Amino acid sequence: MFRLLTSCWSRLKPTEEKRRNATVIIIGLENSGKTVLVEAFQRLLPSRINNDVKSELTTLLLDEYEVAMYDLNGDLKGQEKWPNYYAQAQGLVFVVDSSDVERMQEAKNILTRLMSDKRVAGKPILLLANKQDKKDALLPCDIIEYLLLERLVNENKSKCRVEPCSAIKNLQRRNHHPIIEGLRWLLAAIGDKYEELYISQQPPTLSFPTSKSTRGSGERCSSDSFSTRIVMSKEKRQNFEKRQHFEKRQHFGQRSMEARPLKPILQVNAPTDFSPHVLAVQKDGLRLRPKKNISVTFALDEPMEEGECSGGNGAQNITEPHYNRSNNLQTPAPYVGDDLFEGNIEPVTKEKGFPFPHNFNNITPEAEILFSHHG
Ligand SMILES: Nc1nc2c(ncn2[C@@H]2O[C@H](COP(=O)(O)OP(=O)(O)OP(=O)(O)O)[C@@H](O)[C@H]2O)c(=O)[nH]1
Ligand SMILES: [Mg+2]
User: Fold this and answer.
1) How many other CB atoms are there within 10 angstroms of residue 210's CB atom?
2) pLDDT digits (tens, 9 = 90+) for 305-344
3) How confident is the model at residue 249 (pLDDT cuts 50, 70, 90)?
4) How many helices (H) and strands (E) does the chain have?
């Protein structure tokens, strides 16, 4: 039996040259559902569990990634050990029990401390709003408010995606289960982070090596070294070239600075499996009600920097009109017609493939919100 499992694992394992490693920690208050979520990942994905009794390490295979996921206890004693893992983690999964309103303040305090830690700041965070199957579960937008997440992501310049989910529901929906989509986003964001670092070190006139690799790939670095060379994917190269072209036009006064694509920083997915099937974002009396399958991306009010091509979400996806199933990555579409909302909202404008997100001033002075759907 053991031999059979080992041979299955080696067959499923991506070939050496394609394989990319990522280290992720899964944390949050005790009882939020971390261990049950890890078990759900194990059920949904090929996995390998460390033989040690009570091991916190699970290795998962998702697309070309081999993910080392550490499930850390959330009680006070467990929290003391979290910092030992910060430096080695490339991305974090933070779990909240959406039905536990009483502990939201506590969750906010530990998330604030976590995100401002210099070993964590800037790293992508997948926030799993777990236990959505419970009747009294908070919607993601409420959780964002309780946790003051907009402020946190802006202050720490961390990409964050909020994924409503249930660790115990719909586990047969393998590839498109919210936790799998969320993990996919996290891995893409981890990949982009490396690419950003690599690109920002380059002079403005980049010459791009050719690569056959698919989205977000290229030769990826080893898990804890930034020194490995990253090759830009074709898609990113095209985006970069478009952007250079766009900036040239700006330089000649054809567009104002406000029109530059914004850096997507906080992404919220509307619950698709649970009722109510709408995500409501309420600020200053304005209630936006995107229909189901909508994702909301809060973007830092900061234009993308020279050479920065956003990756696994938001603006990068905006150049793609539909959910791209060929590479199994979630790519929210750019254009949002006003039929997506119940309310008097102006549609996002769009010109020649570039996103010009509408600035909802009454949502927050510093943040932009991009709305897109998954096709
Ligand atoms: N209804 C519901 N219950 C859940 C869900 N996920 C976890 N639970 C329950 O929540 C309780 C705690 O789950 P655990 O996974 O042990 O919590 P944990 O975050 O690992 O807790 P610590 O290891 O102590 O930090 C268990 O009784 C689970 O069955 C969910 O999505 N829905
Ligand atoms: Mg646990």
Assistant:
1) 9
2) 444 433 333 333 322 222 233 333 233 233 233 333 333 3
3) low
4) 10, 14
Ligand nearest to the CA of 56: 2
Q: Structural domain boundaries of the chain?
A: 14-194+261-373, 204-251
**Confidence label for 121 from pLDDT (cuts 50, 70 and 90):** very high
Q: How many A from CA of 247 to the centre of ligand 1?
A: 49
Looking at residue 157, what DSSP letter applies? T
pLDDT value at position 108?
97
pTM of the entire predicted model: 0.62
CATH of domain 14-194+261-373: 3.40.50.300
Residues 190 and 184: their CA atoms lie apart, in Å, by 10
Is residue 35 lining ligand 1, measured as CB closer than 6 Å? yes
**Dihedral sign from CA coordinates of 143, 147, 153, 154:** positive
* Per-residue model confidence as pLDDT tens digits over 37-64: 999 999 999 998 877 656 799 999 999 9
74 is in an annotated binding site: yes
Would the CB of 33 count as within 6 Å of ligand 1? yes
At residue 1, the 3 state secondary structure works out as: coil
Dig out the tokens for 243 from the structure.
């952007």
32 lines ligand 1 (CB under 6 A): yes
DSSP states of 274-300 as a string? SSS----EEETTEEE---TTEEEEEEE
